[in-house]
Description:
By secondary structure, the chain is of the alpha/beta class. 42% of the residues lie in helices and 18% in strands. Strands 4-3-2-1-5-6-7-8 form an eight-stranded mixed beta sheet, sandwiched between helices.
Amino acid sequence: xxxxxxxxxxxxxxxxxxxxxxxxxxxxxxxxxxxxxxxxxxxxxxxxxxxxxxxxxxxxxxxxxxxxxxxxxxxxxxxxxxxxxxxxxxxxxxxxxxxxxxxxxxxxxxxxxxxxxxxxxxxxxxxxxxxxxxxxxxxxxxxxxxxxxxxxxxxxxxxxxxxxxxxxxxxxxxxxxxxxxxxxxxxxxxxxxxxxxxxxxxxxxxxxxxxxxxxxxxxxxxxxxxxxxxxxxxxxxxxxxxxxxxxxxxxxxxxxxxxxxxxxxxxxxxxxxxxxxxxxxxxxxxxxxxxxxxxxxxxxxxxxxxxxxxxxxxxxxxxxxxxxxxxxxxxxxxxxxxxxxxxxxxxxxxxxxxxxxxxxxxxxxxxxxxxxxxxxxxxxxxxxxxxxxxxxxxxxxxxxxxxxxxxxxxxxxxxxxxxxxxxxxxxxxxxxxxxxxxxxxxxxxxxxxxxxxxxxxxxxxxxxxxxxxxxxxxxxxxxxxxxxxxxxxxxxxxxxxxxxxxxxxxxxxxxxxxxxxxxxxxxxxxxxxxxxxxxxxxxxxxxxxxxxxxxxxxxxxxxxxxxxxxxxxxxxxxxxxxxxxxxxxxxxxxxxxxxxxxxxxxxxxxxxxxxxxxxxxxxxxxxxxxxxxxxxxxxxxxxxxxxxxxxxxxxxxxxxxxxxxxxxxxxxxxxxxxxxxxxxxxxxxxxxxxxxxxxxxxxxxxxxxxxxxxxxxxxxxxxx
Length: 720
C-alpha cells in the first residue's frame, strides 16, 4: 500500500502561504512567507513572493526589503526589477520605477517591463544605454552583416491593426533574427533612405517589441504609436561594407528608385530581394493601374541591381525566371523559399473571442479568409451559394463567412450584396479580427474556400490545413503547390464547376471527418521557424558563393540601336509582348538624379555611364547621345572622355543628338566620363547639369551598325 506523502514543516508553510495568496489574503500570505524564509533564506523567488504579498497589503517598506534580499541572491533577475518597479510606481516614486523597468527590459527584453515604460510616458519607451545597431550582439572581427529592410512593415503598422501576408513575413524574420548571429552574420534592421543615398539602422529590440504588440489578441493602438515614434527617432546612420548583404522581403515597389544600391554593390555589398508574386505584371486586370505602373517600374530597377532573388513559392520562382528570360537581356539567379503554412506565433489570451463570433459558430459555416478585392473572386462564392440555396434549401446550406478588409475594385460586389440583403443573413463579413479570433473561426468551420484567380502562394490554404480543415481552392498559379492532394480544386473562371464541387462536399458532410483525419495525420506543416532558417541560410550560402565573383552591372546594350531610359519608355516597352526591356537606366554609374519620364539629369558636374557590349577590347566605336541642358544656362558644354578619346560638346536646352568616338574596355565594357562645364540654369531645389534621354553606339568597322543607328536616330526624332 502506497503511504500518503507527508509535507515537512517548511514545505507545509510554503503551501499555506501560496494558498492564502491565491485566495486573496495577502496579510496572511506575507506572514507565512516570512516564516518560511526564516528557515530558507536563500530562496530568491520566495523573497519576491513575500515582497508581492507585502506590496498587496500596503506594507511598502517591508516589500522593498524583500526585493532587496532577492536581488542580493539573484542580481540579474529581470522579474525582481519588474516587481520592484511596480512597487515604486505604487509608492509614487516614478523615476525609480522607470529605472527598474528599464533594468528589467535591458536584462532580457522583458515585455511586461516594456509595457510599463510605454504606459508611464511615451518619452520613456526608449531604453537607457540600449545600443540599437549593435542589436545587443557586438561586432565580431571577421563577421559580416545582413542589413534587413523593415521599411514596408513600419509604414504598414502605422495605419493597420493586424498584419497582412507580406508584413507577416517581415515580422517573423525580425523575430527569428533577434536570436543573434547566424552563420557569422549579425542581422541589423534598416530603413534605407535612397533619395539621400543613406541607410538608417534601427533597434531590433524595439522592433521585436512592436511585433509582439501585433501578436496580442487585441492591439493597444496607443502603445503601438508610441513605439513606432520611438523606433523612428532612434535611427542612426550605418555603412554597409564589403561582404555584407542588403535584403528586402517587403513591398519593394514602395521606393522611388534604387540608385544607392548600385553604389553599395561596387563596394562589395550583395543585394537580394524576396519576391511574393508578379501578379501586377502577369494579371494587371486585378490591379489598380497606378499600382501596376509603380510595380513595373520598380521591378525593372530592382532587377538591374539584384545579385540574386528569393521567391515565396516554386511557382513564383519559375514566373520570375520566365520574366527574366523573356523580358530582359541579363541573368539574375532565382531560388524558391516556400512560405510556411502555420499562423504566426501568438501571445496573450488565446481565448479572447467576441460573442458575435461565438454566435456565428453555433451554425455550420464555410470560411473564406482574404482581402475583399476583385482578384480574390468573392463574387464566385456568392453565385455558387445562391444556386446551392435554390437547389438545396437555405436550411441545408452552411453559412458563408468572409474574413478580410475591403480592398479595391469591389464596388460591384458591395452593391450586389446590398441590393440582395445577404450580409448578416447567410453571409457574414468580418474584419479587424485578432489572430485568436481567426484561429477560432478556422477551428470551428465546416471547411474553407479560396476561389482566388491568382496567388503568389495562398497562405490561407495552408492555414486551413494546419487546423485540419478541408479546403476547396482554385486550381491556378501556386495554389495546388500549397494544398497538394489535401485540397479539392475548382476552376475559378467557371461557376458551374465550383457549384458541382461545393455541392458534392456539402451533400457528403459525413465524409468530412475522414478528410480531416487524413489532413491531420499526413499533411506536413511548415513552420515559420523553418521558413526563416531557410531564408537566411540560402541568402548567406548564395552570397558566399558570389563573394569572389565580380559584381555584374546588368546593363548590356546592343550596338546599332538607340537606347532610351525614361520611365515612359520603360512602360511602353514592358507593355509590348515581344520586346525585351533594354534601357540605359542601369548605365548611370554615378552622378545622376533618379530617372524621370523622359530620361535623367546629371546631379553633379562629373558623372559616369558604364555599360556592357558584345564587342571585344579596344574595338573603336562611335557613340551618339541625345542630351540637353536646363534653360537659362550660360555657355553649357560637356567634356566627354571614352577610353582616352576626348570630345567637347556644347549643349542647348532642346535635346539634340551629338556624337563622339571611343574604345571598348576589358570584357566588352564601355566607360564614358562626362564633365559638365559652364553655368547651368536654375532647377529648383536640386542642381541639374547635362540631361540624357537616349544613347546608342556603333562598331566603326560595321557599316550595318552605323546605318542602323542613323536610321534609329531618324525614327527617334520623328517620334519626338
